[in-house]
């Protein structure tokens, strides 16, 4: 009986030390992942505008400035993005509140801008939490990029199905 009790006691002590070691290893992996300076791999390139949207995109000064800002901002390291997210939020709000060309004042375009703003705010919320993981950070960036591309897809659809005035003249 004494031998059994001693064996049980030794086994429980060994299990407790394994739990402590595992917990410290998990904490170290989290710390390594957070403090690691990794470059964001997402590049914000303008999708090729269709001929019907070129004039609108070219005259939309706020959009062009926002494009340039996104490319420079997300070309930085994760650490810089994490510690300067307020600049991203400010630039997004400036873009959202900026002047929109009349041809782009469409509900679908506005809603794409709102989606973009929503994902920027989601990134801000996640970055307020100091322990953001690489996977959450990268997912947030991909969502912002998807919203950005969606805005250009919607811009390319502007005037796409408008009747061509030259063809209407031939119907008479």
Walk me through the structure.
- It is a single chain.
- This protein has 172 residues and is mostly helical.
- The protein is 73% helix and 0% strand.
- It has 8 helices and no strands.
- The chain has helices at 2-35, 51-59, 61-73, 78-83, 85-97, 107-128, 134-156, 165-169.
- Helix 6 packs antiparallel against helix 7.
- The longest helix is centred in the first third of the chain and has 34 residues, at 2-35.
- The radius of gyration is 26 Å and the shape is elongated.
- The termini are far apart.
Summarize the structure.
With 172 residues, this protein is mainly α. The protein has eight helices and no strands. Helix 5 runs antiparallel to helix 6 and helix 6 runs antiparallel to helix 7.
Q: Would you spell out the secondary-structure blueprint of this structure?
A:
Blueprint: H1 2-35, H2 51-59, H3 61-73, H4 78-83, H5 85-97, H6 107-128, H7 134-156, H8 165-169
Helix pairs in contact: 3-5, 5-6, 6-7
Strand content is under 5%
The chain-level structural class is: mainly alpha
Please give the radius of gyration in angstroms.
26 Å
**Terminal CA distance:** 108 Å
Anisotropy-based shape:
elongated
Largest sheet: none
pLDDT < 50 stretches: none
Q: What is the average of the pLDDT values?
A: 79
Q: Spell out the helices and strands N to C.
A: HHHHHHHH
Helix content: over 70%
How many β-strands, per DSSP? 0
Counting DSSP H or I runs of 4 or more residues, the number of helices is 8
């Amino acid at each position: 009986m004494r031998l059994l009790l001693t064996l049980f006691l030794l086994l429980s002590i060994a299990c407790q030390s394994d739990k402590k070691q595992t917990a410290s290893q998990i904490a170290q992996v989290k710390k390594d992942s957070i403090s690691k300076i990794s470059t964001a791999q997402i590049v914000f390139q303008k999708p090729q505008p269709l001929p019907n949207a070129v004039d609108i995109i070219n005259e939309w000064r706020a959009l062009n400035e926002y494009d340039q800002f996104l490319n420079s901002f997300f070309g930085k390291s994760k650490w810089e993005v994490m510690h300067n997210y307020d600049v991203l939020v400010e630039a997004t709000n400036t873009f959202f509140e900026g002047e929109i060309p009349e041809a782009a004042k469409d509900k679908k375009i506005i809603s794409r801008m709102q989606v973009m703003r929503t994902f920027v705010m989601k990134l801000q919320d996640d970055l307020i939490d100091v322990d953001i993981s690489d996977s959450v950070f990268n997912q947030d960036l991909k969502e912002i990029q998807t919203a950005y591309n969606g805005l250009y897809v919607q811009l390319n659809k502007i005037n796409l199905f408008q009747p061509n005035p030259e063809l209407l003249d031939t119907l008479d």
